[in-house]
Amino acid sequence: MKRVWVGVWAVLWGLGFAGEGLWETPLPLSKGVYETPLQQDSILDVHAGNAVLSVPNNGAIGFWSSDQMLGLGFLYPGMAPNVLYYGSFALGIDASYVADAWYESNQIDDRDFRPQQGLFHASPGPRNSVEAVWGTFDDSGHPTNPQGIVVDQLAYAYDHPDYDDFIILEYRLTAPNPVSGVYVGYFMDFDIDAYSQNEAAIDSTTRLAYQWFTASSRYAGVVLLTPTTPANLSVLNNPLFVYPYVGCPDSIQIKFLNGTYSFASSWQPDDWSVVVSAGPFTISSDPTIVAFAVVGGLSASDIIANAQHAIDVYNDTTLVGVSETIDHPVSFRFRVTPNIVRDHTTLNFEIPSAAQVAVDLLDPTGRRVQSLNLGRLLPGRHQIGLSLPHLPQGAYFIQIRDASKVLGTQRILKIQE
Prior knowledge:
The structure is a single chain. The chain is mainly beta. It folds into two domains: 8-315, Beta-galactosidase, Chain A, domain 5, CATH 2.70.98; 333-414, Immunoglobulin-like (Sandwich). Helix content is 7%, strand content 44%. The relative contact order is 0.14.
């Protein structure tokens, strides 16, 4: 059954993220304040200056589910085509307990994580980031062995040119009763252009596992930001570990999470995934913090350099944060609410300078099906309503452009009453 959640406007007062790191109430900001109303949804996009990642609140990464009906995936560089087939955050102790959203046998997605609330969005975000998305899910969907683990998820990104090739995702894990031996990781099935001709490798110095397609010079991967000692950095051969089961069984996933299976590089061009994990941890009422970055690059040296930038910006408050040594000018910002549409949606955007602005609605082939000329708009925030009752159901893209270029693109899903 297709899952469709319709987002609602909400104002967040006191989420209660008390604890280590960035988890305060509701989030610390070194510049600006939270805009209201805040968006609460089941999946939201986080925009770095050179990358976009869709973040659901069910433990998946890039898309709500592997059918790719909701989400953009990971767009890199800029608004280039998606390079992520499907990914998932994962917890694991042994074969009886792996909690994730990746595909299980017969390519039926695991639904071990259940959202406790919708996602919230704010711009700007913590530590001078351009925007942030956060929410909470737990492992109560595990069919046989839930552990009572609650996961607070925070994703944020930058538009500064030194830090715009990645999105940071931080997780705060708690449990009412101690749960020992827990591994925390990412399973990411990147499909970069010709997916069956991808290659993969790890870089232990930057705690990076990544994939690439040589002909297009596009690279994508995952960095472990904290802790600094991985349990595993590995490539995963899909024909060997996924195809025979039409998914990846928990009995195999736990061996990648704990490092029993570990492969440093691909042995031939093929269909690959990557795994990055940490642990084991004891999860208790005292929060455990684990953080990753989804990162892109245009060569092996470039993605490794970008991975190091992600580590630097996450750990060093002299780069961003309270010192405010980086000045972020107002940039273009764009949100569509709701992004699951019956007959009407609202465009909220901000432009840094006066410009001639137009809005285009595109079908999945890129054909323009509707256009709206807004004329010359002054700098600042603008809100435009868009009616879509005549369109058939399906995915569409909304683009905002000025006289010379596309400023931003958002994906929406049109559904019937």
